[in-house]
């Protein structure tokens, strides 16, 4: 690969500068993304048309010196393939026609065949790898079982997680059964992405942070540990690294590192130097600038990038990122300030 900083940082090998990418780097803040989505008609058609998914995956790489590409797709492709009837509308967000609430609902679910029901994702991966032509590595991803279950049970986004928490406390065995089916689906989905060519996998546990410490272990981390163990990542220096990101997971870094993952995604609430002191060099840390900082004046953005790099300190094992996805209101020029500052301040 002509740029292997990202993989090297995940394997804790020396790098010439800290690699950087950005969650939601292909997205609504880019006018060219909005134009392609317009051409597709809607978001799901964009995801399900490999040529267009490939086009938007590459868009941010044309503008910025990013060290990785992330597959353009969504975490909700799995429940969609399970037949829940997904729609994603501007201003409304994702919605499912059918929710999972009863024993019968859970029993009726089956594990999707990734090359068949999710074949459009694998086609996109193969096409993107071809187009990237070894320039930067491609990240594949999935939602965590807990995070996917929140959408499947609530029927869309949620503020208080009322339905899933009711199930968790009234019918925990039923929720575990659902989480087991989703876990099997995630394992086969990520292994198919690896077979199709992704060079790193990331699991987004966006809603793990709403759990108590005990429930985080029982309802989220336990299943992510199973996923890490079942991935066909290979071994040694050729392995496909795996990153776990629990938003709000700063309390549980030691337990997350114990899963055997290669990298931990950090949100912005924790000092990265403190995180490093807790997990040592067992794992790489990915993060963790507040995405809202991209609204600050350029100098303030540069100052924050430098602060995070200095806080991480010496040695490999840092992938620079935002602590969560970039929001649609951000000026694309600010992203250039952020990306360039990471390389400038981290040159060794
Ligand atoms: O109108 C549009 O164009 C749709 C907006 C959008 C986009 C650009 C959605 C709907 N998904 C995506 C792409 C997406 N989603 C990517 C693309 C790759 C990249 O990062 O560039 C990725 C990795 C995701 C993952 C995703 N989807 C997560 C996990 C990461 C995170 O941000 O926490 C979650 C929670 C979702 C659900 C989802 N899909 C879309 C939206 C708006 C949401 C969030 C809804 C919510 O807040 O509950």
Question: Can you characterise this structure?
Answer:
With 348 residues, the chain is α/β, with parallel strands linked by helices. It has one domain: TIM Barrel (Alpha-Beta Barrel), CATH 3.20.20. It has helices spanning 5-10, 31-40, 43-48, 50-63, 77-81, 103-107, 119-132, 145-154, 162-170, 172-196, 213-230, 253-257, 272-279, 298-312, 332-346; strands spanning 69-70, 86-89, 93-96, 138-143, 200-205, 242-246, 263-265, 284-289, 318-322. The strands form 2 sheets. The chain has a 7-stranded parallel beta sheet. The protein has a two-stranded antiparallel ribbon with strand order 2-3. Helix 8 (145-154) crosses helix 10 (172-196). The radius of gyration is 19 Å and the shape is globular. The protein binds coproporphyrinogen I. The site of coproporphyrinogen I has 22 residues, from strand 3. Residues 23-28, 37, 43, 70, 72, 74-76, 88, 90, 93-94, 141, 157, 204, 206, 325 line the site of coproporphyrinogen I.
The poorly predicted ranges are none
Shape type: globular
State the CATH class.
Answer: Alpha Beta
Question: What compounds sit in this structure?
Answer: coproporphyrinogen I
Cα end-to-end separation: 20 Å
Neighbour order of strands in the largest sheet: 1-4-5-6-7-8-9
The H/E string reads HHHHEHEEHHEHHHEHEHEHEHEH
The percentage of residues in β strands lies in 5-15%
Mean pLDDT: 97
Helix content: 40-55%
Helix-and-strand structural type: alpha/beta
Provide the number of structural domains. 1
The CATH topology corresponds to TIM Barrel
Let me know the number of strands. 9
Number of contiguous helices: 15
Biggest pleated sheet: 7 strands, parallel
Radius of gyration: 19 Å
